[in-house]
Design brief:
homodimer; 483 residues; alpha/beta; Aspartate Aminotransferase, domain 2; Aspartate Aminotransferase, domain 1; 3 domains; 15 helices
Chain lengths: 483, 483
């Protein structure tokens, strides 16, 4: 009995037509994005007002949608794929990744269990094992050893899962069935990402039980302060359960001293998590692997391929030394999810490695990226960005109006006009309003500081040069004119 | 000074070429997927063994990748987009969604803040407001009122966020800075999704503080038992903070009695969350809106457009009655995320509405779906699936070998061969091994039961008919032969 499968065939046809239109739109977008104002100039509510109040009752054509994309949506886009984007950390991408993501959308598999698409799980295991070798991470993070890697949506979520695993281990797997033990304490530096504090809140550990450890003059966690805080908590009958260290902090890309921190964690039996969301990718290059010195102490680790490894959001790679510690913290198995493969214990069910049950086939885009560029191609990108950063710094240092704040690390420069915050705030505002570049800010030692991060896939010397030209131009105007 | 933008132009060209190849691949996949065995027949490790142990050092062509997709990946896919997929709940999709998702991948914006792409936030607000009207949800879920909606990755994550908001409100916003108050208690039915229990664990409330409320003979939470449990906890000095009710439970699609549960929650001031992950979409149709009777009591609500609204994973719509309750539970604002728009309080920053900081532009695919099909088109899909389900039930009831277990609700049928579990387990295994359909199972009243859910986008009467034919065929073989 042959089936006609009319709907499947009609869908294929519609995808050929509408998908083609979308693909052309994106290709044109990539061509023209360098000319668009990087930071969207719209005001709050502008986009909302351009959109109909009610959903259409009847079908509309994809052409009509694309027309509105140009007129109503595009003006409200801040262009993360512009080569003139230097703000926050990048979310870089590549054609290989977009094509790989299209395959993932097309498959539409939901890989919650090994059985619900074995390839979704096993390709992820293999590609994450590749990355252990590519970044020279400790071998216990391999799925063939005690650990393993998993793709999560963000470093925020990975940091939360690391904390949950640490919490679970400290309370001996399950003794906190009565609720989070209020004696638990956790530790991170004053320069760590806000997601650590958010995780502490989510996990019910309580913000008062998060010890914020001082940083040194290079914005690195002070191991001596960490040791002192842990010892004090031990004396007070607390249960230290988690240390969150950072390789490449958000404000300055500072690198916490993992060897010293790791030794302290090991001595006290505390879970050490290392968040290398932005910086991790640098370890593709031999000469930059110093960033991971001491990583062998870590119980868990994450970095974002969606920041600096040409893979479009979302793609955080999260590793654990011991997968049981993680899954113990997250497993719940109702009858409707039981199946032979899971029960046999011979497969990985990634639903037990993160908060969501459902999961998209994200390994596909990562696989496409690694194969399309090869390890050498990815290394070349990192080296180019680091090189451009060094050039930018040399220009900056040749202009006596500016000062760099914090050591320049990898691809991030923190700088400011010598003088009051107001002049720097005005410069920041003028630069972003120019539309020619977008950069963000932070505060260091109480001072307003500009952050310039080079990591967008399509950024070349000409864009860094044009940005520097713009910075110099606006810096020459008296700051008061900006008021 | 005109920039050459060579890399952007080269990327556009590469995307035209590789994106086209990926698009053709997906279109062919959709054409042929009805012929493929629905449940992947591979064994644990088969796919891993087919993949290289090491990442390539040099660039490979996209053609080479697609070739391996066919040979190494495709055999390990369980085909969620097959019209012969009847397992779990569907993760249905559409060409409009895939094309919309391609636009999202192409933009590559990261919408953590309003300022990092105003359109990413405001299109999401508008489309989620559309859905309030489309499903006739309570108006306080509108962003123009006290509440609002947000897209999350999964109902699991939405359920966690609802719990966190309830926990925060019960402890008067911040009084749990010392850690999760161990007096807190939460309530859900024995048929609720496992993600509620997972959320309880994550949030540090403790599994012993989750009260599992009995269900009636139709698998619905018993309000009298809920009331009794809450009263007992109040007498014991506990703090009831959260009730998780379900519209469309995973095992049987049963619908908890929201009017009675809601009245109890209101009386005791407890956060009521309603998880309608699968069933919610049915409310597109007037005649099916009974499922949401009593929803006006809910403090939060979620349903999955990636299950039954033609939107590819991930796209959970999560609503709150009072957005402040949610953001209080999740906000942390470091200096590097501060900006004029956020500080002004005139914009929504969706990073404070969920666990991750970063976020993809998921509203685009949803916008494309709603516009491409129109409300009428989406309604027609729901009606078709419900109608097909009714037909399947009539066939089942005309065959005296079978019995239905639990009332048939919307698009899910729970049935079994009259007789021992072993016969049903054998039937289940043979059906899935045939490759001609995929269905999953559950246990109800201690018995092994088959679940047949009709929600795949391309499923037509011919596929349901063929599935029924297959079921009848294998049911005629003596069960013992399967041993």
């Amino acid at each position: 009995m042959a089936l006609t499968n009319q709907r499947s065939r009609a869908a294929a046809e519609q995808l050929r037509r509408d998908g083609q239109a979308a693909l052309d739109w994106v290709a044109r977008y990539l061509e023209h994005v360098p000319e668009l104002p990087v930071l969207s100039p719209v005001k709050p509510g502008d986009i909302l007002r351009a959109l109909p109040q009610h959903a259409p009752q009847q079908s509309e054509s994809f052409d009509a949608i694309l027309k509105d994309l140009d007129s109503s949506i595009l003006p409200g886009i801040t262009h993360w794929q512009s080569p003139n984007y230097f703000a926050y950390f990048p979310a870089n991408s590549s054609p290989a990744s977009v094509a790989g993501d299209l395959l993932s959308s097309g498959f539409g598999v939901q890989g919650m269990l090994w059985a619900t698409s074995p390839a979704c799980t096993e390709l992820e295991m293999r590609v994450l094992d590749w990355l252990v070798e590519m970044l020279a991470l400790p071998e216990h993070f391999l799925s063939t050893r005690s650990g393993g890697g998993v793709i999560q949506d963000s470093a925020s979520s990975a940091n939360l899962c690391a904390l949950l695993a640490g919490r679970e281990r400290a309370t001996q797997f399950g003794s906190n069935e009565d609720g989070c033990d209020q004696r638990l304490t956790a530790y991170t530096s004053a320069q760590a990402h806000s997601s650590i504090e958010k995780a502490i809140k989510v996990a019910g550990i309580g913000r008062k039980n998060l010890r914020i450890i001082e940083v040194d003059d290079q914005f690195r966690m002070k191991p001596s302060h960490l040791a002192r805080a842990i010892e004090q908590d031990n004396r007070d009958g607390r249960i230290p359960c988690f240390v969150g260290a950072t390789v490449g902090t958000t404000s300055t890309m500072s690198i916490d001293p993992l060897p010293e921190i790791g030794a302290i964690c090991r001595e006290h039996g505390i879970w050490l998590h290392v968040d290398a969301a932005m910086a991790g990718t640098a370890a593709l290059c031999d000469e930059l692997r110093y960033i991971h010195k001491g990583l062998e102490y870590a119980d868990s680790y994450c970095f974002d391929c969606h920041k600096w490894m040409l893979t479009n959001f979302d793609c955080t790679c999260f590793y654990v030394r011991n997968r049981t510690a993680l899954t113990n913290a997250l497993t719940i198995t109702p009858e409707y999810l039981r199946n032979t493969a899971s029960t046999s214990g011979t497969v990985v069910d990634y639903r037990d490695w993160h908060i969501p049950l459902g999961r998209r086939f994200r390994a596909l885009k990562l696989w496409c990226v690694i194969r399309s560029y090869g390890v050498e191609g990815l290394r070349a990108m990192v080296r180019r960005h680091v090189q451009l950063t060094n050039e930018f710094v040399s220009w900056l240092r040749s202009d006596s109006r500016f000062e760099t704040i914090a050591p320049v690390s990898l691809n991030l420069v923190c700088f400011r006009l010598k003088g009051p915050d107001s002049a720097n705030e005005a410069l920041h505002q003028k630069l972003n309003a120019s539309g020619r570049l977008f950069l963000s800010h932070t505060k260091l030692n109480g001072k307003f500081v500009l952050r310039f991060c080079i990591g967008q896939s399509y950024t070349d010397e000409e864009h860094v040069g044009a940005a520097w030209h713009e910075i110099q131009k606006h810096a020459t105007e008296p700051a008061v004119a900006a008021g």
